[in-house]
Design a protein that fits this description.
Elements: H1 3-16, H2 22-29, H3 33-46, H4 66-76, H5 87-97, H6 104-111, E1 143-150, E2 160-167, E3 173-179, H7 184-197, E4 203-206, H8 220-225, H9 232-240, E5 243-246, H10 254-274, H11 279-297, H12 317-320, E6 323-328, E7 334-337, E8 340-344, E9 357-362, E10 368-372, E11 375-377, E12 379-382, H13 407-420
Length: 421
């Protein structure tokens, strides 16, 4: 028994022998008079066994089965499927995949029976003091975008880049897709899919990658004309009326940076469980993962009215979501682009385009489209002509290397000359 229980037994024994009053006993034990009378009644009936709590020595009703504990430890071990998972993620998957309901703290004590002492001796260095930025009020006011190159398949396949977008207002993941590298076509594909599913946002928040922001400085002529150098992606956003905001630090767009940290833990391990080993299989796995992630982590925006602007029903997405350049049409209504010659068909144009500029646009899938202003032009690829065979150039012989004529050769030349006359 504890010292407190031994003191209670002593005081109740004295109270039963009428050596002390109930009020004095209550004062010494820190209890009320009613509690002292109740304890005295139990003490007289059951003796010292009435003082300890009744559950002492009993097995808790919510204790885990030892076999279940061993199974969980095996699943989380080095040879188990959940090796390396964090506690919250493992708890979710145990409930979904294995039907095991367990508390987070209980699972933590089971997996980590001993706390790992920190070996950090030096005090943490004071970093840059930053000011917290509040979320945007409504969905669609700001969408944060980025690409994350990482070994997502853990060596089972090629190294990939995950490109994604998250809404600043409600923490909802709007788009994810894997590509071999972070490129302009990947961003245009992302913009197009977001426009198709949600609409056009008011702004995109991104880093200073040259794909998203041209590093060129404006020339004097550009400054006089009020122009600024733009990358292909900047031109697309400018034409759509979407504001492009470049963050000055990773912490400024911390929402998507933290998203990559979460995905590099959760998504990597879930693809390992699913046996994903290729780019196509990884992209096919993403829709279900996005739905589960948004159901758990998305929040409600302060303003329920969305700021997304829906696209027109008959919108030509290849016109807006493509990299574009201009080319001058030749007299035969052909133009050259990237070493290829394209013939504009007469049925698609309403005027002569000779000497005029047309827009050449390449969509994210690499397909080429020609436009006269916003009118699409039908075209065909002109087969390249057969190159002429080049003969080896004849070099002039050095007079010193010319062989001496024989008498027979000289007579033959004179005869040929006479026949020509």
């Amino acid at each position: 028994m504890t010292r407190s229980e031994q003191k209670t037994i002593d005081m109740l024994t004295r109270l039963a022998a009428r050596q002390i009053t109930v009020e004095r006993t209550a004062e010494l034990l820190g209890l009320s008079s009613r509690q002292v009378r109740r304890k005295l009644k139990c003490f007289v009936a059951d003796g010292v066994n009435a003082i300890p709590h009744g559950n002492r020595g009993r097995k808790p009703h919510n204790v885990l089965d030892p076999d279940l504990c061993a199974r969980i430890v095996k699943l989380a071990g080095k040879e188990g499927p959940y090796h390396g998972f964090n506690i919250c993620h493992m708890r979710e998957l145990l409930a979904v995949n294995d039907g095991i309901q367990i508390g987070r703290s209980t699972l933590h004590r089971l997996i980590y029976p001993k706390a790992i002492a920190s070996d950090q001796t030096d005090p943490p260095q004071r970093g840059v003091v930053r000011r917290r930025r509040l979320r945007k009020a409504a969905a669609g006011m700001m969408v944060q975008i980025d690409g994350s190159p990482h070994d997502w398949l853990e060596g089972r396949g090629p190294r990939l880049c995950l490109m994604g977008a998250i809404d600043d207002a409600d923490n909802r993941v709007l788009h994810l897709h894997f590509r071999a590298n972070e490129d302009a076509a990947g961003y245009l594909l992302m913009f197009r899919e977001i426009a198709l599913q949600y609409g056009l946002p008011a702004s995109y928040y991104h880093d200073k990658h040259t794909i998203l922001r041209s590093p060129k400085k404006p020339t004097i002529e550009d400054e006089l004309d009020g122009k600024i150098p733009m990358s292909h992606v900047q031109k697309v956003l400018h034409d759509l009326g979407i504001e492009s905001i470049a963050a000055h630090s990773p912490q400024a767009k911390g929402r998507i940076e933290r998203l990559w940290s979460t995905f590099q833990d959760r998504l990597v391990k879930e693809m390992r469980l699913a046996g994903i080993a290729s780019l196509e299989a990884a992209n096919a796995f993403l829709p279900g993962f996005i739905a589960r992630h948004n159901a758990q982590f998305a929040t409600e925006a302060a303003d329920p009215n969305t700021a997304f602007v829906a696209m027109e029903a008959d919108c030509d997405y290849d016109y807006y979501f493509s990299m574009h350049e201009t080319r001058v049409v030749k007299a035969d209504h052909t133009l050259s682009f990237e070493g290829q010659t394209y013939q504009i068909k007469p049925g698609s144009r309403t005027r002569s385009l000779c000497g005029l500029k047309v827009s050449v646009r390449v969509n994210p899938e690499g397909q080429i489209r020609l436009y006269d202003e916003k009118r699409r032009l039908d075209h065909s690829l002109v087969a390249p002509s057969q190159p002429r065979l080049k003969t080896a150039p004849t070099s002039k012989a050095n007079p010193e290397d010319k062989p001496s004529d024989t008498a027979a050769a000289a007579r033959k030349r004179r005869w040929l000359h006479a026949q020509a006359i």
